[in-house]
Amino acid sequence: MSLSAFDLAYDELRARWPDSTEERDVATPYGRTRVHVHGPADGSPLVLLPGGSATGLVWFANAPALGGRYRIHAVDLLGDAGRTERRGTPLKSADDLTAWLDALLDGLGLARTHLCGHSYGAWLAVRYALHAPQRVDRLALVDPTQVFAGFRPGYLLRALPTLIRPSRARARAFLAWETADAHPDETWQRLYALATTVPGRKLIAGTRPRAAGLRMPVLVLLAERGRAHDAARVADRARRTLSRGEVALLPGATHHSLPLTGPKELNDRLMDFLG
Question: In 3D, which of 151, 186, 163 has the Cα closest to residue 257?
Answer without folding.
Answer: 186
